[in-house]
Design a protein that fits this description.
Structural class: alpha/beta
Helix content: 25-40%
Distance between the termini: 71 Å
Number of helices: 14
Number of strands: 13
Shape: globular
Bound molecules: pyridoxal-5'-phosphate, zinc ion
Strand content: 15-25%
């Protein structure tokens, strides 16, 4: 009956698809993957994917872990523009630099992809209350979709999350709980609440297999936007890495359908103040180890993986399978990339949203990438999310040309 099956990425044990919301492998606790019976699902065709009109991720429903008769609650997520860099690319010697404008999603970040699928799954299962921990964006997305779906949302935010993000989460009616410590500590509370209170945990780490599936729609869109050409690199800021994993899975499906000929190299970019996956990649280690002390301000990727380092190992494995790389960039480089995007390209993203550009600059510098390569950079979160550029005190002037001339030193 179900068009998909679940299996563990670590021990390969299948998990039964039931009427309850599944989290991790029942045998070993590993990350669960969703696999579709591609033989029984009518394949996507180029014509179909190309002609898909706006209308949210529901248009991909037969390749999502939802029942066919579930009416997808959408806010118009996805279908984000693919922009060509005008100045920054040439200046760094990369002529084919493209921006996937994920900040154009309804709540201002790519998290609308995983959370739209997660909330729809929770509703399909008859849930009343959903809960997540969030550095800001997942909470805003879950809150919005929960409101649209008529569910109660509880969002646990670590104290470092900026006021603008907390305001956005609360704006669509979520109950906000601020906690001491980092994202991993908040996630622990979410898991406990989910276990003891029966609320559905929609954390967008690999806590459950469903939200990650929303991320693979990035690949479907890129294939159309690039005319079925696979870019050399897709450059992705990574916390635990579900966005990267989703993009990998999406391209793998397109390849299985014969719509693209290969999976792009995936570059996972971390902040040097919290870079557990990068460290293991750099040392050629098989497994990722949790990070001790987070010192970056790039809040969207500041995940030390405490208590779930194997999730990082899963992401690392996919990076390697794609022939890709992991890169770490410091906060100064991230802020410089943010400023270049807003001042040279007119694109205003939050610091974490600029991490991919900082990563490409590093890859050009150290020779990991070639000037002839084609890059797609995931610009993941809108600048209005918080952590704004410094704003001077602005005097109020008389509304005259003379006074304006003086102010602007014309
Ligand atoms: C969540 C987030 C990321 C990291 O994505 P993961 O799938 O958690 O690795 C990157 N950028 C922004 C703006 C985010 O909100
Ligand atoms: Zn297992």
């Amino acid at each position: 009956m179900s068009t998909f099956a679940l299996s563990c990425a670590t021990c390969r044990t299948p998990a039964a698809v039931s009427d309850s919301y599944l989290y991790r492998c029942p045998s070993c606790g590993g990350v669960l993957e969703i696999n579709y019976d591609l033989g029984s699902i009518p394949p996507f065709t180029r014509a179909e994917l190309s002609s898909m009109v706006p209308g949210g991720l529901g248009r991909y429903q037969r390749l999502l872990p939802l029942r066919a008769d579930t009416a997808f609650v959408s806010l118009g997520e996805g279908n984000t523009p693919l922009l060509t860099a005008r100045r920054v690319g040439h200046e760094v010697g990369a002529d084919r630099l493209l921006f996937k404008a994920e900040f154009c999603n309804p709540t201002g970040s790519f998290k609308d992809r995983p959370l739209s699928v997660g909330v729809n799954k929770a509703k399909e299962m008859g849930a009343q209350t959903v809960i997540t921990s969030s550095s800001g964006n997942a909470g805003a997305a879950m809150a919005a979709y929960a409101a649209a779906a008529g569910l109660t949302a509880v969002v646990v935010v670590p104290e470092i999350v900026p006021a603008a993000s907390v305001t956005q989460i609360a704006a669509t009616g979520a109950k906000v709980v601020r906690t001491a410590g980092d994202v991993a500590a908040a996630l622990r509370l979410v898991r406990e609440a989910s276990e003891k209170l029966g609320w559905i945990n929609l954390a967008t780490t690999y806590q459950s297999p469903y939200p990650t599936e929303g991320n693979k729609t990035v690949a479907y869109e890129l294939a159309v936007q690039l005319g079925w050409r696979t870019p050399d690199w897709v450059v992705v800021p990574i916390g635990a890495g579900p966005l990267l994993a989703g993009i990998y899975r999406g391209f793998a499906e397109l390849k299985a359908f014969g719509l693209v000929d290969r999976i792009p190299r995936l570059a996972g970019i971390q902040a040097s103040g919290c870079a557990p996956i990068y460290e293991s990649f750099r040392h050629g280690a098989a497994a990722v180890r949790e990070w001790d002390r987070v010192t970056t301000m790039a809040k969207g990727i500041a995940d030390p993986l405490r208590g779930y380092a194997e999730d990082g190992t899963y992401t690392l494995t996919l990076i390697r399978q794609s022939g890709g790389t992991a890169v770490a960039v410091d906060d100064a480089a991230i802020l410089a990339a943010r400023d270049r995007l807003r001042l040279e390209e007119g694109i205003f993203v939050e610091p974490t949203g600029a991490v991919a550009l900082a990563g490409v600059l590093k890859m050009m510098e150290d020779g990991t990438a070639s000037p002839n390569d084609e890059f797609v950079l995931m610009l993941t979160g809108h600048g209005l999310k918080g952590q704004f550029p410094a704003e001077p005190d602005r005097p109020v002037i008389e509304p005259t040309l003379e006074a304006m001339g003086k102010l602007l030193a014309l």
